[in-house]
Each structure stands twice: as structure tokens, then as C-alpha cells.
Amino acid sequence: GPNAEPLVDRCEQGSVQYFRWTGSKWDLRQRFYPFGRNSDSIASMNFIKGEVSLAFSSLSGDQVVFSLYRFPDSGERLYGQTKTFEPFPGGADIFARSMRNKAFFIANSERISLRYSTTADIRWEKEVHYPLRHLVVNGKFDRILALDDNGDLHLYSLSDPHPEAGFRAFFARIWYEGQDSPQFIWQSSGGSSDDFEPKLSLIPLIVGSLKGTFYALLFALPIALLAAIYTSQFLSPELKRVIKPGIEIMASLPSVVLGFLAALWLAPLIEDRIPSVILICIGVPATAVLFGYLWNLLPIRFRILIPKGWEFIVFLPVMIIVCYLGWHLGPLFEQVAFRLQDPSTGQTVADFRLWWESFAGSQFQQRNSLVVGFMMGFAVIPIIYTIADDALSAVPKALTSASLALGASRWQTTARIVLPSAAAGIFSAFMIGLGRAVGETMIVVMATGNTPIMDMDIFSGMRTLSANIAVELPEAPQDGTLYRTLFLGAFVLFVLTFTVNTVAEVLRHRLRERYKVVG
Fold first, then answer.
1. For 125-134, b where at least 16 C-beta lie within 10 A, e where not — what string?
2. Which candidate in 105, 331, 410, 419 could, as Cys together with 96 as Cys, close a disulfide (CB 3.0–4.6 Å)?
């Protein structure tokens, strides 16, 4: 080993022994066979930069990489096979590693091959026409010096500035050093640790973008569409001229202000009141449906006392009371529904955060997807509302008047006449809101932990493609691998939104053709 702490010994039977110094003696931790008990002997065995991984070559040309990681069953940090390379013809008895990255050379008397440990890629191969004896790589990873049996030196120039990049590195599962399985990981920097290797998978960022968009639309879409339906079909025109501009002006709020409010006001506010939020999210829709049902049961002589388009005067106080009760009954709801045994004290406690961590198996974070959904949804609502309201208001009055004249109620007319006729415009509103949410940057940067994780847990954070560009680009060396990867992330974001918008336009055209009004 590099510091005389781990000791790896190759035996004649094709086995490898791993020892660890315990302070008084060498303790045998592991014995393993890189190529199996009945396979060829080991032709070469060497450490890769970082001294966490060992590259093995057999006499028949097979090549594998074993890395140290903690085995899930025992918890011990032992060697396990993590990479399998394409065979090297004739076997390899010459090895030279890079001191700059995880690349290494293997060679024999006929061929030289450059390979990269992280992605198991063959970067370059060349046949040689001289008996090769030794091979070295300079520290800058741009020169190779070969020595033949005649004592002659052969100098090669090397240009491979981005070996850690590639399709597999960006979009496939990679078995990184220290991990117990292949994973999608984004980790562009790792301090001064020698065993660090760049982890540039874009999959966690794509998942984060979709996750943030999903929760934002989950909050914004019902509110925006129902508001558009109400203001266009039920609200008094005099009030609409005041309320619609008020909602539209919400779109002028800067994203950085919304992100600031989400991080410093909303996240701490609801951190300990999740049961209250649950009660409000359940109570408001349920009360609205119940109130509408009971309102229709009232005799007409009572309902006509409220002018048409002003019914919300009766409904609004009820909603305020429901929200007030839901907020203050949350702690009682927590005491009843979210009880568990505290693992640290052994006592039964009522704590939603502990209950969620026990139930979902994931950590509850203060800045999470719920906060992002609320605040990013607040930014998306004006866009969806404005376009949907315009589409609903554009339905010819002749259609709605004919429906009402035939005895249909206002709700029946809205559901069966107005909504199908405005379907194309409503769908456009949804897609434009989707595009706004996908590209949002500042709210996500400030309101989440910016952790590139792969789960869809509502109480964990995320990192989106756009937020990743904003966070990483100032620290990325120009023309370096990270710099280019960030531009690739921007391109992936463009392709994602372009594809979504193209599909949306095709569907919108079909909806328009299906529900178009023929004069």
C-alpha cells in the first residue's frame, strides 16, 4: 500500500491477500481470486491513482478492477470487483498509471492500451513494432515514454483532456470507488482527498428538474385552472376587471424574492406544522365541494338574495374559518395520527418528522420539495391562470347562451360546453406553465438543499439542471471537463423543453381540430 497501512500480496496460486496493520501485527482481512480459482495466473497487479483500486491483468488478456468498499452484509471495507474491461490480446505484463486521474496503460511486446478505470473505457490502443520493456507517463498526462529491449526510448504525445467524460459517465450507472453498487451520482468536487474521482451523472439533475416541476404543477395547476374557470364563468364582470390584473401582476415578482421568502420565511414556518398543512390541503377542497352541494340544496328564494357572480361572499368566510381551524388543529392531529417510539429515549412521542423518517426511510429536510412546490407554484399560477382564462373567455357566447336556454345549469354548461371548446388553450396554458417551472433557477437554488438525489420524496431536496448551472459555473475552470459538462446540461435542458413543447403543440393542434366551432 502507499502508506504501508494496507498490504496486498500476490500469491503463486492466482490469489491475492489483503492485510491491514493493527498496531502490533499484520491482520489478514481478505483472500480473493481476481480471475477465479481455476483461471489463469495474474500477469500484472498495480494500484490506480488514489490507491483505492487495483487493476489486474491475466496471462490470457482478461482485465478487471477491484476496489475497496464496505460490504453491506458485514460492514467491512474489503476488495470487490467493480470493473471488467475488454480482453487485451496476448495478455499484459507492463503497467503504467497516470498521476493525474484514474487512467492507466497496459502493454506487452506488441501493443499499448490506454484505459480509464471509472468508466471501464478503452481510450486508445496502438500496436508497436519493437520489443517493449517499460512504460512511464508524465505528471501532466500528455507524454508517454517507452523503453524497448535494445535500450532505445520512444516518446509519444498524448491528448486526452477529458477521460472522465462520455455517454456512460453522463447517463449510465457507474460503480465509483467507495460505493457498494453502480449508481447515478453527481459530485463535481471532493476537496483534497486523493481517492476522489469526478462523478458527473446528469440523471440526478434530470430527476431533480422533473421532481421540482411535478410538485410545482401539483400545487399550481388546480388553483390556476379553477380560478380561471370561476373568474371567466361565474364571477361578476366588474370584479373580474379588478381580480384578473391583480393575479397577473403576481408574475412580475422576481424569482430571487420568492426564493428568499421560501428559504427564510416559508420553510421555517411549516417545518413543524406539516400536520396543519395536511389538514388545510384536505379540508379546503372537501369544504368547497360540500358547500357547493349544500348551496344547491337551498331553495331558490334564498339563493337569489346573493347577486349572480357574488356567491363567493358567502363562501369566503367559510374557507377562512376552515384554514384557521386546520392550522390550529394540526398539533392535535399530530398527537393522534403521528405517534411512534423515539429510538433515542424509548418513549412514545408525537413527532411528524420522526414519524416520516421512520415511515419513508428518508430524512426530513427543512428546505424540501413541498416548500419549492408552494413557492414555485406561486410563480407559475399567474401564467397558467392568464392563458386559461383567456381561452375560456374566448368561447362564443352563443354556445353558452344556447346551453343555458335549454335548461343546463352554469356548471353543466361549463363542464360540457366551455371546457371542451377551450381545451386547446387550457392545454397550452399547462405546457407554458410546465416550461416556466422546468427552467426556474433562483427559487430552487434558495429553497432546497441543492442535493442531487434520485428520490421523489416530498420532504427531501433536489438539484435541477438550471440550478446546477447557476451553482457550479462560477467555479468551473474554462474549457475544463466540468465547464463542458455544464454546457451539456444546458443542452439537455433545451432538448427536454423543446421536446415537451413540440409534443404539446401537436396535441394542442389535435385538440383544436377536435373541438373547433364551426360557424
1. eeebeeebee
2. 105
The beta-carbon contacts of 9-13 under 8 Å, at least 24 apart in sequence, are: 10/42, 10/45, 12/41
Element (H, E) at 332: helix 312-337
User: Would you call 10 exposed, middle or buried from its count of C-beta atoms within 10 A (0-12, 13-18, 19+)?
Assistant: middle
Predicted confidence band at 194 (pLDDT cuts at 50, 70, 90)?
very low
- Reported as a pLDDT band with limits 50, 70 and 90, residue 55 is very high
> How distant, in Å, are the alpha carbons of 17, 43, 55, 92, 471 from that of 11?
8, 12, 16, 18, 49
Residue with cell 475497496: 68
**Distance between start and end Cα atoms, the chain:** 84
Strands 339-341 and 121-127: unpaired
Interacting residues of 372 by C-beta distance below 8 A, sequence separation 6+: 212, 215, 216, 262, 443, 444, 447, 448, 462
* 329: enclosing H helix or E strand: helix 312-337
Cell for 405? 336556454
Collapsing DSSP to helix, strand or coil, 223 comes out as: helix
One-letter identity of residue 475 = E
Which string of DSSP letters, residue by residue, matches 335-391? HHH-EEE-TTT--EEE-HHHHHHHHHSS---SS-HHHHHHHHHHHHHHHHHHHHHHH
Between the CA atoms of 402, 408, 409 and 413, what dihedral angle is there, to the nearest 10 degrees?
Answer: -60
pTM exceeds 0.85 for this model: yes
The DSSP line for 248-300 is: HGGGGS-HHHHHHHIIIIIHHHHHT-HHHHHHHHHHHHHHHHHHHHHHHHS-H
Q: Which three cell numbers stand for residue 357?
A: 423518517
Cα distance between residue 123 and residue 125, in whole Å: 7
DSSP string of 152-216, one letter each residue: -EEEEE---S-TT-SHHHHHS-B--TT-SS-B--EE---TT-TT---EE-SHHHHHHHHHHHHHH
Task: Give the H/E segment covering residue 72.
Answer: none
Residue 94 near residue 128, CB atoms below 8 Å = no
CA distance 313 to 305: 12
Residue 195 pLDDT > 60: no
Instruction: Inform me whether the pLDDT recorded for 510 exceeds 90.
Output: no
Residue with cell 421568502: 261
Q: How many CA atoms lie within 13 A of 114 on its CB side?
A: 21
Is the pLDDT confidence value at 363 over 80?
Answer: yes
CB under 8 Å to 140, separation ≥6 — which residues? 100
Report, in angstroms and rounded to the nearest whole number, the Rg of the chain calculated over CA atoms: 32
* Cell numbers placing 7: 498490504
**Dist. CA 99–CA 41, nearest whole Å:** 27
